[in-house]
Design goal:
14 strands; globular; alpha/beta; three-stranded antiparallel beta sheet
Length: 472
Amino acid sequence: MSTSRRQFLRAASALGAATGIADVSLPAGLAGLAALAAQKTAVAATTGNGYRALVCLYMNGGNDSHNWVVPTDSTGYAEYAAVRRELAWAPTDLRTLSQTGQASGRTFGMPTALDPMRRWYEAGQMAVVANVGTLLRPTTKADFQADLSLPAKLFSHNDQASTWQSLLPEGAPSGWGGRMGDILMSANRYPVFTAVSASGNAVFLSGSSAVQYQVGLDGPVRMGALANGSTLGSSTVAQVMQRRLPNAGDNPWQAAYAQVTQRSAQAEAVLSAALASATAPDIPATPIVLGNGTTVTLNQDSLARQLRIVARMIRAGQSLGMQRQVFFVSMGGFDTHANQMRDQPSLMARVAQSTDYFLSAMAGMGLANNVTLFTASDFGRTLSSNGQGCDHGWGSHHFVAGGAVKGGQICGRFPVTALGTADDVGSGRLLPGSSVTEYAATMGRWMGLSSTELSYVLPTLGNFSGAGTQFL
């Protein structure tokens, strides 16, 4: 894409972001400019691929993925059991994956709590991406020991969570999902719904032009003062605000606040109307036993409910003229320094059953091939046990699911689950075999981004010579 085309695209996108939507009480000229941006400067993402969406499922705290995909061949399992000790699953707790694409003689399984995800893997619609982590460039164990070109503050929750989501440490102004949104938003009739979080503010969705739109578990959150009824005893506040917002005065701070308020109100009205007819299947009331012995049902679970509102927004997007969207959902509890074997089964069950619900919903809507869900987390954890759990690590295994995924395989080289290997930088902290940058690049290409556009989204991509792990 030429510099002039990109500048025009950014300008049009910025205007769309400032106003939030392409119609609903906006000047016809602005709506026309947004339409022109979509038609005349269409990015590669809009050419012939139809609707596409990415859904990031973020596991806060650093997921111990060593117990999610486990070697089951005799040598591999013996190494796993020796290093994991009390954290190791018994062989009877594991279900073998029928094929993996790994070296001859190596076999793998997943624990029974992940059966709903294993079924999607076996159906060819889920892949495991082995040993992914934050890297600035291809890195060896010798580089690590010499402290050469390493990500800042390895093993720190805040910094590594930020680096996973933005490719920069804590304090980053934008994330790679948001930077995708900067480019993709011009393809959408309503740019404000390009980058959507169902889990509060996330740097992953922050862009330069794209502004992340946050929804609640049941849909958009309406401003209290604009809702029906009274505010502080007055029934006229809403009408006064509606009159005042378009004429906020000359004070730039006041005008900016009014603009954001007006955008919020207009977007809420558009989305509420679209969601009224955008149904999603009910979440089943499947019981899940938590580590403390209490039982919840899946339809009460926050992650499942986040994925349901995402499913509804994806369905609503079909009538709203959306072509490209990036979503964010999250779940906590993965910082398992203690009580890991008590708590991990319920964490797994919540992720597996919520994911199963969402993928089934996409299939029922006929959108399985148009939506890709992927997992992310602060970092992996140590292979070695601390007696009750495991500590902060580096590389970890992740899951990518959807109808377009080249499923039924473990992508990348699955490391030996033992200490003292070329992948072990200490206590079983795995040196990543694939970078977050390469992981993201594969999804960016699927979304239709060109090499030039990917360089904007992923500034370190040029440090990696290959095409990355191809699971899409």
